[in-house]
Fold this sequence. Notes:
By secondary structure, the protein is of the alpha/beta class. Among the domains are: 1-54, no CATH class; 130-304, Rossmann fold (3-Layer(aba) Sandwich). It has 18 helices and 28 strands. The chain has a 9-stranded mixed beta sheet, with helices on both faces. Helix 4 packs antiparallel against helix 5 and helix 4 (104-114) crosses helix 12. The longest helix has 17 residues, at 132-148. Mean pLDDT is 84; it is low at 1-79 and 542-551. InterPro entries: AMP-bd_C_sf, AMP-binding_CS, AMP-dep_synth/lig_dom, ANL_N_sf. One of its GO terms (biological process) is fatty acid metabolic process.
Amino acid sequence: MVASAQPQVxxxxxxxxxxxxxxxxxxxxxxxxxxxxxxxxxLVNHRLLSLVHTSPFPKEMDGPGWGFREPGGxxxxxxxxxxxxxxxxxxxxxxxxxxxxxxxxxxLEATAQRVPDRxxxxxxxxxxxxxxxxxxxxxxxAASGLxxxxxxxxxxxxxxxxxxxxxxxxQLATAQTGIILVxxxxxxxxxxxxxxxxxxxxKALVFPKQFKSQQYYNILKQICPELEKxxxxxxxxxxxxxxxxxxxxxxxxxxxxxxxxxVATGSKKQHLARLRYxxxxxxxxxxxxxxxxSGTTGSPKGATLSHYNIVNNSNxxxxxxxxxxxxxxxxxxxxxxxxYHCLGSVGGTMVCLIHGATLILASPTFDGKKAxxxxxxERGSFLxxxxxxxxxxxNQPDFSSYDISALRGGVIAGSPAPPELIRAIIDKLNMKExxxxxxxxxxxxxxxxxxxxxxxxxxxxxxxRIMSHTEAQIVNMKTGTLAELNTPGELYIxxxxxxxxxxxxPQKTEETIGQDKWYRTGDIAVMDDQxxxxxxxxxxDMIIRGGENIYPAELEDFFxxxxxxxxxxxxxxxxxxxxxxxxxxxxxxxxxMNLGLx
Length: 598
């Protein structure tokens, strides 16, 4: 479609009056290179109408975060939220303000300059308490140190271990240098670790000697028996040929470098100068993090995320939480979720970094008692967690003895949360500003989220509404067309948040992200006329009985209404051969139900 001297006009019929749209407006909605592939008349109509039909419900902070008032940006609240159009399950988030074109390092620099003396990181178990200025200084030294030992832009460095100060340090130091952080599940054993490191070609691995029963160094020796006799930084492994550099975070170990020594080396002027030179060539579109999917179906895949992905997602999460309107003492986030997972590294570390909030790591791995202690002693105002984590916190025997008066809100995500649990969290934890978030690792991760002003019912019965700069559609799995409102279908996502791809797996990437840039989540969802989305199950878990589709989440929600039911999970067995009574369900490190156990 080409504009002539006399602009063409497309008229779309609305219930109350016709709407005239100039061709130039249509063109602005779709980039030139993508227009021909998915700019169907119906979709154009839906896209245009979604910009017109809005609801005066909650005020969304849609602009860049507190520290990122770009030219033309604003911290004023919008009072509009896009609604689905024409009775179909398609919605587009607000795009009033520009996305941020900054690297993680540039964001840290900006926040350290803006609030240098505000606490950035608190790790009680390690006696760590750093301001943003101090954190920036330590990150720069660590980044310079990584360059000094031969790592550089594009190399992959794995971080393998529980939540800790070194984890945050490596997350930010790698981003400063263009090194790609590989988030390794701290529960991985030898076979899983070997697969992950080989899959992405890790050149370096940072780890503790051990944590509880997990003997990290001994597991490494199973894969790399050459380690004990290797020169530090010069490992030659037959099974992992790319891996040359092992860095221990706590103990001197044969064949490894010590993290403290690497950081100390980075404090030298020549290495800091090299860091500044390297940073000139970094782009916000460079990959910054590889996160492995859970692998519940097949082998784990390495979802590759860019600076652009995670900087903007964390900024928009913080805006939806209204962090830019909070007083400094209200910006204290307690994080019991694992950092190797997106909820921790993006929703936690990155949200705090961009919005100038204090990140409080409650414990190395989830511990409900430690979470309550952190809330009480550190005056935590926001709390993150999965449903199972919140259940554990609420059921602590001495729950009533902790001071939770500073708590006001937080995020629950990671798996479906039953309505009764949402109500219990809001009431018992005093978290009136609790929001439910939905996302996937491949989407950086959050794409739907409540507003704090949503009613308890809206929080309990949905995962909120579309995030800014994001599109969502629900597709009828039989016909491949847009599903009508309140009709289940597969949820598709498109926008800045979609990953770069699965590392080294172009075919699987193409199977998941179409040429039209829509990412297929595999989740079954329903959207109502206000744009609230509810996840009702996974497409692979859907049950067909008597021609009717039955979704496990609907049954689980029903069971949760019984006062004697604490947790419930629908099994895939028709008639189980064995019945085992257990106190707790088996969980993954990220707090999700472990469905992979035999």
